[in-house]
Specification:
The complex is a heterodimer. Chain A has 2 domains: 197 residues, Rossmann fold; 82 residues, no CATH class. In chain A, α2 crosses α3, α3 crosses α8 and α8 packs antiparallel against α9. The two termini of chain A are 38 Å apart. Chain A has 11 helices and 10 strands. In chain A, the strands form 2 sheets. Chain A has a 6-stranded mixed β-sheet, sandwiched between helices. Chain A has a 4-stranded antiparallel β-sheet with strand order 8-7-9-10, with no helix packed on it. Chain A is of the alpha/beta class. Chain B has 4 domains: 228 residues, Rossmann fold (3-Layer(aba) Sandwich); 86 residues, Elongation Factor Tu (Ef-tu), domain 3; 108 residues, Translation factors (Elongation Factor Tu (Ef-tu), domain 3, Beta Barrel); 95 residues, Rossmann fold, CATH 3.40.50. Chain B contains 14 helices and 26 strands. In chain B, α5 crosses α6. The radius of gyration of chain B is 29 Å and the shape is elongated. Classes of the chains: A alpha/beta, B alpha+beta. At the A-B interface, α2, α3, α8, α9 and α10 of A face α1, α2, α4, β2 and β3 of B.
Chain lengths: 318, 541
């Protein structure tokens, strides 16, 4: 059985000698990300790291630790809490903050939650708009953050393939894809006027496989929801909906125990689980690799239906 | 594939898979072109066919067969990301794409051919190790291929690959290929030192992209993918002169003071003597700190932090170099500019120059010429507009420590920023220094043993030359080291024992015995010869 310890980064492979031994791609990506973290910490007054608790955030957090070691991370973390995150996510978040001594800020759109905002009554688009985008913009404004790190990767989605590493946002927090600053070498233009801000994506050049591989190599803790185990699910057609919120109603016979896990972490009513046996990181990677081939055709057909991410991003979403 | 099936066989295999993954390095390359020259088809073919390679590997690991070649796909749909692009049927911006094979990970900077071509090509080429230039075999070398090769060379892309495409439409003719190869080699030879590889391909039919063509027996070179997998990257950067731009001083407590940055060239080892610029102070590397433990040595492009044996005053924007192979410095530089902004270049307007980890005020004093990107002719102009490429002189308010871009991308590049609009105006590549710093003669910290009768005169002579001098009779090594760390020339009126001499010399400080010299002018000349005084000035001549 593959264990994490067998994936310790070997120093011979990771560090080049003077004869020019090759650096691994992960070491190169890590060096690039650390340079970005240090640049932002030096150039901005009030940077913050958006912490979404997922795997990308976990890698970002480790890279931030590395960038400022042996010093502490010189900026706070901000979690935009929709109120519908999984309990295991919140517990993991609080535990990480405690163990690492992080300055963790949490922001919720309390007004919308008090008004009963949820995806069943509002629809997902309006719900996301209120509990994510509005909350994010309000949270950034509340503390006056002028730069915000996000864990988005360019391989995730087509509009993200064109996003800069330093992504300029106007006074309303919005992105103008046709008017992006040219970005050459690793020379980032960090100058902004009052009220404007920059979203920074230190994981831009990482792929999903790189993220999982780095988690394995570095032994980075992740939320247990990523690992397969018997979980109570509402089984509806091909979907597995985790049983967590009372407003998600099940029909008789729909609730079953299913060996399953989450591929990405979001709000419990809107995040489907998958049937899986992957209960270790190497198994998750094996599963990822096998999905990649079988899902490829779908991806290509799917591609032109959306543009929805681009719209969300223009409005201020990450 | 059902997961359960995979499950049974993967436990051991996935470990091998991850080890293979960990050994992969990274190649960044750029492509440019418009839809009709087959660029999208070529990229699509690479992404698609190489994923087959990828899957073959995975299936070898898992013992499962991979299916047939995939159905026909409109590759252009893979490469247009933004709504405006899909609506207008054009590609506006640089898009980054990722794929991997058994040997390497690849990042493609895919730049559009028409709209904003210069700006986009320059952006893509700035981080690329290799550029693929597409040439339509039927049409030969067009303006666009010429332009792309020029921009890639200008931005210092080391490896150019001419993919001579649509060979299927010229009956796979060797004659056609050889003619284009010859012409292109001549063109590239005229403007750069980049290596050139030419490959005859048919992106549409897959010849020589991933799979070797069976229809061009006369070609024995690599397929495009074989070449991409084998071209050397980051090989000689470790032996270049050390350059570490200091991004940040890490100081968690009184006991630790680390200078953090990403090594842009060279290798640094524990115990190495380093030079801090602009102060000119030297010290030895006490440790190379990383989260994963201290390192004995580190090479570009790792991000590290250094601690030094002496307390030097180093801050963000400073440059750590090796002592022997120092960067140049100048207050006025000649640089190639790629102008990005709609706002035209205005000479004598205040701009900001971001170079390494520092930003300093400067202005363009004159534009020498613009390169006509169609003909590559130099045209006399006095301004540059959007997408222009030219050469200009830039005057800075402080001396800039740099290497010519051709020698070092990191310390030879800069961006120009408009201090009012905050726009990124241009990318700059330094060609040479025009005027050296006029900050008085440079001097090195040194201990000079001198007779008491001459010490006052020598001190006055050195002060008049703008050097920082101190007289002392104290011979304690600790005190002397403290004075040297401040960059002073220490005039010592006492004899010094051999141990003290050895301790200072091993710390990289110059110790000169000038006792017995009778004339001050001779002493000054000795200091010059020993490179303590006017070192830069002498070098410039």
């Amino acid at each position: 059985m593959a264990t994490l310890s067998s994936f310790e980064p070997s120093s011979e492979a990771a560090i080049p000698d003077s004869t020019g031994k090759r650096l691994s791609h992960l070491k190169l990506l890590e060096a690039e990300s650390i340079q970005i973290f240090r640049e932002v910490a030096a150039e901005f007054q009030k940077p913050v790291m958006l912490y979404s608790i997922g795997k990308d955030s976990s890698v970002m957090l480790r890279l931030a630790q590395k960038a400022f070691f042996p010093g502490p991370i010189p900026f706070p973390l901000l979690h935009i809490d929709t109120g519908y995150k999984f309990h295991e996510m919140i517990a993991f978040r609080d535990q990480m903050a405690k163990e690492l001594g992080l300055d963790l800020r949490v922001w919720r759109n309390e007004q919308a939650l008090a008004d009963g905002a949820n995806p069943v009554t509002l629809g997902t688009q309006r719900c996301c708009g209120l509990l994510k985008t509005t909350a994010l913009l309000d949270g950034l404004r509340e503390w006056g953050f002028d730069a915000a790190f996000g864990g988005a990767r360019r391989d995730e989605e087509k509009s993200r393939a064109k996003e800069r590493i330093f992504s300029f946002r106007d006074k309303a927090g919005q992105w103008d894809p046709k008017n992006q600053r040219p970005e050459v070498w690793n020379l980032y233009n960090a100058r902004i006027s009052p009220g404007e801000s920059i979203r920074v994506f230190p994981l831009s050049n990482w792929t999903e496989l790189d993220i999982w591989h780095y988690i394995a190599l570095e032994d980075i803790p992740v939320v247990p929801l990523y690992f397969a185990k018997e979980r109570k699910m509402i089984v509806r057609a091909d979907s597995l909906i985790p049983v967590e919120q009372s407003f998600v109603q099940s029909l008789p016979g729909e609730e079953q125990m299913v060996k399953s896990r989450l591929r990405s972490l979001g709000c419990s009513p809107c995040t489907g689980a998958i049937r899986s046996e992957a209960d270790t990181i190497p198994k998750i990677i094996a599963e990822l690799v096998s999905f990649r081939s079988s899902e490829r055709a779908n991806r290509v057909i799917d591609h032109d239906t959306d543009g929805s991410m681009e719209i969300k991003k223009r409005e201020g979403y990450f | 594939m059902p997961i359960e099936e995979l499950e049974l066989e993967t436990d051991f295999a996935i470990e091998e898979f991850l080890e293979a993954e960990a050994a992969k390095d990274l190649l960044r390359f750029s492509t440019a072109g418009s839809v009709d020259d087959g660029k999208s088809t070529l990229i699509g073919r690479l992404l698609y066919d190489s994923r087959n390679v990828y899957e073959d590997q995975v299936s070898a690991v898992t013992g499962t067969q991979v299916g047939e070649r995939k159905p026909t796909i409109d590759f252009a749909l893979l490469t247009d990301g933004l709504r405006a692009e899909r609506e207008q049927g054009i590609t506006i911006d640089v898009a980054y794409r990722y794929f991997s094979t058994q040997r390497r990970k690849f990042i493609i900077a895919d730049t559009p051919g028409h709209e904003q071509y210069t700006r986009n090509m320059a952006t893509g080429a700035s981080t690329a190790d290799l550029a693929i230039i597409l040439i339509d075999a039927r049409k030969g070398i067009l303006v666009q291929s010429r332009r792309h090769a020029y921009i890639a060379s200008l931005l210092g892309t080391r490896h150019l690959v001419a993919a001579i495409n649509k060979m299927d439409l010229v009956d796979f003719s060797e004659e056609v290929y050889r003619k284009i190869e010859h012409d292109f080699r001549e063109l590239v030879g005229s403007f750069g030192s980049a290596s050139l590889t030419t490959i005859p391909v048919s992106a549409l039919e897959g010849d020589n992209v991933v799979e070797r063509s069976t229809r061009m027996d006369w070609y024995s070179g690599p397929t495009l993918l074989e070449h991409l997998e084998n071209v050397p990257v980051w090989t000689d950067v470790a032996t270049q002169p050390l350059r570490l731009p200091v991004q940040r001083v890490i100081r968690p407590d009184q006991n630790y003071r680390g200078f953090a940055g990403q090594i842009s060239a060279g290798t640094v080892r524990k115990g190495d003597l380093i030079l801090a610029l602009p102060s000119g102070r030297t010290s030895r590397v006490a440790s190379i700190t990383t989260f994963d433990g201290d390192l004995e040595e580190a090479s570009a492009p790792l991000s590290i932090a250094l601690t030094l044996e002496d307390e030097l005053d180093i801050s963000r924007g400073d440059l750590i170099s090796e002592v022997d192979r120092k960067p140049q410095h100048a207050t006025s530089i000649e640089a190639s500019l790629v102008w990005f902004d709609a706002e035209r270049l205005e000479t004598h307007r205040p701009y900001l120059v971001k170079h390494g980890a520092q930003t300093l005020p400067g202005r363009v004093t004159r534009v020498l010429y613009r390169t006509n990107i169609q003909t590559l002719a130099e045209e006399a102009v006095n301004s540059l507009g959007m997408n222009d490429i030219g050469v200009a002189e830039i005057e800075l308010t402080r001396p800039l420590y740099f290497d010519p871009y051709a020698e070092n991308r990191g310390s030879g590049s800069f961006i120009l920023i408009d201090p009012h609009t905050n726009a990124t105006l241009a990318a700059g590549m330094i060609r040479r220094g025009v005027a050296t710093a006029e900050t008085g003669p440079e001097h090195k910290a040194a201990v000079v043993l001198v007779d008491g009768s001459l010490v006052a005169d020598l001190e006055r002579a050195l002060l008049n030359k703008g050097a920082a001098v101190v007289r002392t009779r104290v011979t304690a090594v600790k005190t002397l080291r403290g004075l040297l760390a401040l960059g002073l020339i220490v005039l010592l009126e006492e004899a010094m024992d051999a141990d003290a001499d050895a301790a200072l010399t091993s710390g990289g400080f110059a110790v000169m015995n000038a006792r017995g010299t009778a004339k001050v002018s001779d002493l000054v000349e000795q200091l010059r010869v020993a490179d303590v005084l006017d070192a830069e000035e002498r070098r410039a001549k």
